[in-house]
Write a sequence for this structure.
């Protein structure tokens, strides 16, 4: 079984799916001849041609808007937005049309589209190249939000996202692109959307995370009997796995790199408070990015939740 | 070293039928007498529909409605040229396009009455639900055209928008992509002179809207949008081009929104009565009627029959509309995702 990093796993998923189904097309900036600025689409242009791996003009709204028209016509477009910070100009298309077309046409047209985009801090990138605004998308009914944390899961979740009948925002942690190599099987396997995974079982505290923060979370729980949950799909999220774990441990720490206010941790925290309050032994703590704009390289390390901050939160809830 | 002109362009304007009902026979599109009668009957049906919709709105039986009075020739003239296999991406002021392609009239009213089920597009029509955000639908047409081209099908994608729509970013992105890939798209701009209270002159400093197309490597035409023959001819030309792989066309139909922007608007606040009256003399239906009368295709008896038929069609649609049971609250959940989420399933218990 080949050991692949996340870039290679994503590339393999795209390649295998495109071979399987000729309705799948890729479109985005520099995705064709260049193979994508992170090389996630490398080799696909040569293999599938310019009509299936489409180099578009510099046009985010155009990419998503055109993908909606393709999907309505029966294709399964995989649109790439080069960095999550550039998706804002395509929000209108995403919210006003991709999320609504099934509802508005009462099922006559659907939008089986994937929007892949690199997100998150940790690589000392330029301004607006480190955004983690997943909560915006979780707030909009009609779209799904998926965040893989390992190469293996990236491949399985991407295949599921491509096959999903509804639009999926697929967030790829830039920091993880080449950080980890692991066994990634060739051939198709899927990981269901809407299901979280328990990365490690434990009894004293539930630590919930996703994407690149999962790895920092795993470093932080050493020495504790912690249950670590990788949410994987943020919308719709797996309430059942979450609540079952909280009912067992009675303590919760939520870790994400987006700012705290209205971050997705708020939704998780509220859900736990509503449905598992009487099982709680300690306050629910959120370790998140601060309520600031993601800073440039020199301050980035101070922004992203550190192992120390996560450990401190675990220590805190363990006092109860 | 030199200074020289390296690019220039000219904008063609097509006018065939004038206000007196005289047509330039050398420019007439190939339309049979029965086609012409059918077009006239559609114009009259649209007007009957529009008047009834306004009446229903005043009676509280429709919500806010966007009238089409004055723009009938732009809508019928273009949509009359479509094939069933063409895909249409309209804005919210395209009831006339819907009616021309055979969309059930009671469903158009159903939507404006606040019932989403009116947008359940019949399976044999390739039209999208009307777009509410201005200009955004241009991109969907572009995507469908890309898909059609990839599939090597003859489908053309047609999108409608107004003069206001040409100011949006998505209009630019749509035309740009269509130009780059030379896609089978037709951009139909109904320049009705007003985007709510903003006149055409404040929407763009461009002398014509058609010339914007040239910046994207797209042919742009202007037509008299109240001349149903000119609109038809331009559309037919653009469709033929699209099907032959000769790329996109932009058609600016110069017309006028005689009525308010919507029933929630009062156009007397921002434009003069004289201007409206002047445009009323350019009425698209009147000039076709005069033309037909000269050709012996129109008589008072025919007018009477056509009016009766239109009225009875609209009566029938209203009757059907009023017989529809109100939607059930559970239907709010039905089409958000293919399957309900666990949380939606819980929320559904409220009903």
């Amino acid at each position: 079984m080949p050991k692949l990093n996340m870039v290679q796993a994503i590339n393999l998923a795209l390649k295998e799916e495109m071979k399987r189904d000729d309705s799948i097309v890729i479109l985005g900036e520099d995705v064709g001849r260049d193979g994508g600025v992170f090389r996630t689409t490398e080799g696909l242009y040569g293999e599938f041609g310019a009509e299936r791996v489409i180099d578009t003009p510099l046009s985010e709204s155009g990419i998503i808007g055109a993908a909606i028209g393709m999907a309505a016509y029966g294709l399964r477009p995989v649109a790439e937005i080069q960095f999550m910070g550039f998706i804002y100009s395509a929000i209108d298309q995403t919210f006003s049309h991709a999320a609504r077309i099934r509802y508005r046409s009462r099922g006559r047209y659907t939008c089986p589209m994937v929007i892949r985009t690199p997100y998150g801090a940790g690589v000392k990138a330029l301004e607006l190249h480190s955004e983690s605004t997943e909560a915006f998308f979780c707030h909009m009914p009609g779209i799904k939000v998926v965040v893989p944390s390992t190469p293996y899961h990236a491949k399985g979740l991407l295949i599921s996202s491509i096959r999903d009948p509804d639009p999926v925002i697929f967030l790829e942690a830039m920091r993880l692109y080449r950080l980890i190599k692991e066994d990634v099987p060739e051939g198709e396997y899927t990981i269901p959307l809407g299901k979280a995974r328990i990365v490690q079982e434990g009894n004293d505290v539930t630590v919930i995370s996703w994407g690149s923060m999962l790895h920092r979370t795993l470093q932080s729980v050493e020495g504790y009997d912690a249950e670590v949950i990788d949410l994987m799909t943020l919308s719709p999220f797996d309430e059942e796995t979450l609540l079952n774990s909280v009912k067992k441990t009675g303590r919760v720490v939520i870790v994400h790199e987006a700012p705290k206010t209205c971050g997705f941790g708020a939704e998780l925290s509220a859900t736990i408070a509503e449905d598992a309050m009487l099982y709680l032994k300690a306050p629910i703590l959120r370790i998140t990015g601060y309520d600031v704009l993601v800073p440039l390289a020199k301050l980035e390390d101070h922004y992203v939740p550190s192992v120390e901050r996560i450990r401190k939160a675990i220590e805190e809830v363990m006092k109860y | 070293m030199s200074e020289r002109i390296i690019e220039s362009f000219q904008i063609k304007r097509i006018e065939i039928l004038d206000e007196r009902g005289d047509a330039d026979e050398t420019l007439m599109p190939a339309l049979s007498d029965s086609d012409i009668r059918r077009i006239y009957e559609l114009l009259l049906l649209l007007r009957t529909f529009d008047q009834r919709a306004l009446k229903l709105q005043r009676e509280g039986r429709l919500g806010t409605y966007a009238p089409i009075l004055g723009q009938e020739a732009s809508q019928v003239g273009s949509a009359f040229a479509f094939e069933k296999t063409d895909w249409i991406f309209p804005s919210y002021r395209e009831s006339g396009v819907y009616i021309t392609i055979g969309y059930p009239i009671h469903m158009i009213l159903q939507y404006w009455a606040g019932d989403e089920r009116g947008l359940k597009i019949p399976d044999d029509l390739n039209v999208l639900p009307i777009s509410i955000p201005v200009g955004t639908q241009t991109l969907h047409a572009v995507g469908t055209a890309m898909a059609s081209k990839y599939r090597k099908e003859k489908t053309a994608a047609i999108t409608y928008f107004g003069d206001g729509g040409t100011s949006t970013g998505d209009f630019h992105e749509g035309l740009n992509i269509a130009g780059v890939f030379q896609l089978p798209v037709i951009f139909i701009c109904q320049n009705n002179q007003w985007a709510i209270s903003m006149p055409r002159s404040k929407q763009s400093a461009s002398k014509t809207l058609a010339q914007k197309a040239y910046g994207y490597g797209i042919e742009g035409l202007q037509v008299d949008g109240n001349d149903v023959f000119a609109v038809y001819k331009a559309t037919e030309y653009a469709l033929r081009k699209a099907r032959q792989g000769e790329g996109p066309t932009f058609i600016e139909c110069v017309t006028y929104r005689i009525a308010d922007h919507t029933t929630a608007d009062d156009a007397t606040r921002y434009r003069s009565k004289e201007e409206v009256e002047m445009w009323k003399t350019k009425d698209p239906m009147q000039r076709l009627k005069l033309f037909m009368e000269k050709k012996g295709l129109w008589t008072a008896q025919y007018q009477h029959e056509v009016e009766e038929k239109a009225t009875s069609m609209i009566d029938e649609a209203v009757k059907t509309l009023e017989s529809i049971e109100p939607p059930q609250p559970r239907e709010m959940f039905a089409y958000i995702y293919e399957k309900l989420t666990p949380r939606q399933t819980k929320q559904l218990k409220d009903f």
Observations:
- Residues 250 and 281 of chain A are 5 Å apart (CA to CA).
- Chain A touches chain B through 46 residues (CB under 8 Å).
- The first helix of chain A runs from residue 6 to 20.
